[in-house]
Amino acid sequence: MSYTDDLDAVISMVLMADPVSLSVVRQRFRRWLAALCWPEEEVDDVVMAVNEAVSNAIEQIHPSEIGAEVRVAARQYAELDGGRRILIAVAGGKLWSPEPASFPGQGLLMIHSCMDDVGVSREHDGITMMMTSAKVPPLSRGA
Amino acid sequence: MNGPLGGVPPAEQLMTINRDDRSGCVVLVVHGEVDLSTGSRLMEAGSEALHQAAGQPVVLDLSDVDFLSSSGMGLLVALHDEGRGMHTPLRVVVDEKQSVIRPIRTMGLDEVLSLFGSLDEAITA
Question: What's the complex ipTM?
Fold first, then answer.
């Protein structure tokens, strides 16, 4: 689809695993979603889900992981009917286990309420949470 | 613009708390964003206010809060419970038009907290 040609359709960042990174990731996603003309009422859901996933990764970084980082990447893609979604990946350290049993708070519940799909994959170098946003209408491309 | 953290806004700027007591209520007016970086300061200020109030109502005015994470909601519940144990009511002000009302409802906090639409309503309740 034409969206894949669009450089704006992708965002990625590496954050230090510290709570001060949260306002940075929220601000950068807000700016990016505005550039994608993402519907305003859906922006809050994406920002909330990203904030909760990164918060959880930060909270669960093991104290032995000095200088730990959290990696966040997201991309806009279009489905066959033209509807758009955001796919977000949040990767924490090896010892991060974003699972319901280990969730100290209500973060995962919040993520599920904001996203259409949530999954966790285990790679050799750590754990990644994948989140798919709700579908929003195609971007009407003016002149 | 770039501080020691390379452009990361300090948590002190991200959220401010002002005390503005009136009509026999201890009032804390919160501005900004409540998340993992700012929450502990709000917890401390709220807890201190509950202890100083000695039975008077404590009003937490969140009208100017534009982001509230699940950790922030958790601390609101903790403060509410702390106040109940001390017979000091905690009243939380959130406007219907604010974006934070949606996550509050999603988590069912509207069933737990004493919510008011305006500071005036919270004070005269």
Answer: 0.88
